[in-house]
Fold this sequence. Notes:
Dihydrodipicolinate Reductase, domain 2; 12 helices; 33% helix; binds nicotinamide-adenine-dinucleotide
Amino acid sequence: MALIKVGINGFGTIGKRVASAVSAQDDMEVVGVTKTRPSFESEVARYRGFDLYTPQKSVELFEKANVPVEGTVEDLCGKVDIMVDCTPGNVGPEYKAMYAKAGIKAIFQGGEDHSLTGISFNSTANYKESWGAQFSRVVSCNTTGLLRTLYPIDRRFGIEKAYVTLVRRAADPGDSKSGPINGLEPTVKLPTHHGPDVQSIMPWVNINTMAIKASTTIMHMHTVTLELKNPASTEAAVEAIRNSSRVRMVDAASGIKSTAEIMELSRDLARDRSDMYEIVVWEDGVKAAGNMLYYYQAVHQESDVVPENVDCIRSMCKVCDAADSVKMTNQALGIPYKC
Ligand code: NAD
């Protein structure tokens, strides 16, 4: 079978990871990536073997810096089956018409509104909804994290109401313009956008979210409180979470007491860029009491959406079903497989 030809528009935090993950698959290839100006990241793209493209208005910048580019973003559109748009939030809409004109498919990221595509994607919860679609959107890192545990718990016990507080990293580790902040900043407009974003995929779930920005760059942390339709024991809840796809259970008793040790574990696993694609749940932090269930989960914001982008490509290009796609993606990225 011919390889799916993939372009990556925006080779930043998410784009460079999606490019590496796509390259690691047997059924797709990266045709090119885009940068808006010559920088260390455009050198990284070349070092990793990716052809560079740039918006028309930036061609001169690359010529002046003697950095070769293969063409414009529009040229790249002419060479691919699907573009993964990893530009910053609210930039994607500027490109939608270009993708439509080129007759290619495109995946947008969580910084865009659900209304841009009308379909949002999560591998576990709704793989089929993007089947054959021209446009879809992989939900944000926090929403992906919530769906990874809420969906299986809802299927097993039923969720009457979900209350989630998100403690959010202030900036990504490589971003020196937005942080660090010395303070805790609540999002005062409630509910935060995370609950409605979960509902773009699980519209039946009654969920309320609050969020606090914290002085950290490495991960987000969620405290999750669920009112269940059917009572669960702590053991049954642990089992349901443990068996969930792309969820890793850890134990504070084993020394993983914070997001710092999770990132150390990530480095020890020696994956590309030390990424932790799984949502991490503390087993000894899961507690069920009657119809209530409480747990903590940590989200590696830079990478949890990466395997979902790969699966979304397969769904939109009608390659295989969800279980096969998740298995292939996990194998290529070194994620333990659970269906
Ligand atoms: P980023 O700023 O790290 O990278 C964006 C890239 O797009 C940069 O390389 C930038 O040069 C490029 N770019 C900017 N304007 C462009 C344009 N007009 N044309 C082409 N390229 C352009 O951003 P990011 O963190 O990778 O975020 C990308 C998307 O992924 C956003 O929608 C964001 O909300 C979402 N997302 C981010 C995270 C995260 O934690 N960083 C997690 C999940 C989802």
